[in-house]
Design brief:
Elements lengths: L8 E5 L7 H10 L3 E2 L9 E4 L1 H5 L3 H8 L5 E3 L1 H10 L12 H7 L10 H15 L2 E7 L6 E3 L3 E15 L3 E11 L3 E2 L20 E3 L8 E8 L4 E12 L5 E9 L5 E8 L4
Parallel strand pairs: 1-2, 1-3, 3-4
Antiparallel strand pairs: 5-7, 6-7, 7-8, 7-9, 10-12, 11-12, 12-13, 13-14
C-alpha cells in the first residue's frame, strides 16, 4: 500500500470521467488517503470538476470559505501524484475563477454569446431612458401684482429638457403659470377702508377729523437689492364706542406679512 497521500483527507464533488466517487475513493485510499463523503474539520483536499466549481456546488462554496485549510484541486492532481509516486504541489492543480471563465461554455442554446446578449439588453435599457427632464424654478419678484380688491401672482419657470440619442442638446423653455385670483373683501365705512386683515374690521372704521384721515401706506422698492416692501399704519375707532386701536402691518408686497395691534385706548391722548 502506497503512502503518497498520507495525512490527506479527500472529498469529491462533481461527475468525473475517471469514474464514480466509489471508484475514486478506493484509488486514493490505496495510496494512504482518508476519504470523507462530506466536508469535515479534517478535510484537507476537495477534488472537483471545473463544471462543479463553476456552479458552484455546496461543497465548493464551503471549501472556498476555508481556503486556508482546504486545497481545491482537479483529479489530475491525484493521477499525476500517483504517476510520480509523490504528492505534488497543489497550487499547480488548483482551480481559480479565471480558469473557469476560460473553460465554461458562455453561449446559450442558440449559440449566442451570453456576454453579447447581456450587453445588448443593457443598450436596450439605455435607449428607453432617452429623455431626462430637469426643472429649475425661478420667481420673478417684479411680476407680482397686488390690487386692493384682488391678488394675481405670476410665476416664471425655466424648464430644461435634455434629449439624448447620439448627442445631447439642451433646450430652455420659459413657462408662465398664473395662480388663481384671490378675491379680498374690503369694508369702507368712512374716508378710507379698514385693513382687511384687522380682526375687528367689521365693527371699526378709520378715524378721521376735519383735516386728516389717519390711514397711511408706505412702500420701499429697491430693484438692485431685491427690496419690495410695504408698511400699513391705521388709527381705528370702534363704531359704537370711544375706543381706539393702532393697527400696523408690514412685509413683502404680495404677502400678508406680519401685524401688530395696540389698544384699545379710551382717548386719543
Amino acid at each position: 500500500m502506497s503512502s503518497i497521500f498520507d495525512g490527506c483527507c479527500i472529498t469529491f464533488s462533481g461527475v468525473f470521467d475517471a469514474g464514480n466517487h466509489s471508484k475514486l475513493q478506493t484509488i486514493v485510499k490505496e495510496h494512504g488517503a482518508v476519504h470523507s463523503s462530506s466536508l469535515t474539520k479534517k478535510t484537507t483536499h476537495l477534488v472537483v470538476t471545473k463544471e462543479d466549481y463553476a456552479k458552484p456546488s455546496m461543497k465548493v462554496t464551503s471549501a472556498r470559505a476555508r481556503a486556508e485549510e482546504i486545497s481545491i484541486v482537479t483529479w489530475q492532481w491525484v493521477e499525476d501524484s500517483i504517476s510520480q509516486k509523490c504528492k505534488l504541489d497543489e497550487s499547480k492543480y488548483s482551480i481559480t475563477a479565471d480558469a473557469d471563465d476560460d473553460d465554461v461554455d458562455m453561449t446559450d442554446a442558440n449559440g449566442v454569446d451570453k456576454d453579447d446578449k447581456q450587453e445588448s439588453k443593457d443598450v436596450s435599457r439605455k435607449r428607453k431612458r432617452v429623455v431626462k427632464t430637469e426643472e429649475e424654478d425661478t420667481t420673478d419678484e417684479n411680476s407680482v401684482v397686488v390690487a386692493s380688491s384682488s391678488k394675481s401672482v405670476t410665476t416664471k419657470k425655466k424648464r430644461k429638457i435634455k434629449t439624448s440619442t447620439s448627442s445631447t442638446s439642451v433646450q430652455t423653455v420659459d413657462v408662465k403659470i398664473v395662480e388663481e385670483k384671490k378675491m379680498v373683501t374690503i369694508i369702507k365705512k368712512g374716508k378710507a377702508p379698514v385693513d382687511s386683515l384687522f380682526s375687528e374690521k367689521d365693527r371699526t372704521h378709520v378715524y378721521s377729523d376735519d383735516t386728516t384721515v389717519w390711514d397711511c401706506l408706505l412702500n420701499q422698492t429697491n430693484v438692485a437689492n431685491n427690496n419690495n416692501k410695504f408698511f400699513v399704519i391705521q388709527l381705528l375707532k370702534l363704531d359704537s364706542a370711544n375706543q381706539y386701536f393702532v393697527f400696523t402691518r408690514w412685509g413683502r408686497v404680495g404677502y400678508d406679512g406680519q401685524q401688530s395691534t395696540s389698544g384699545p385706548f379710551i382717548d386719543l391722548d
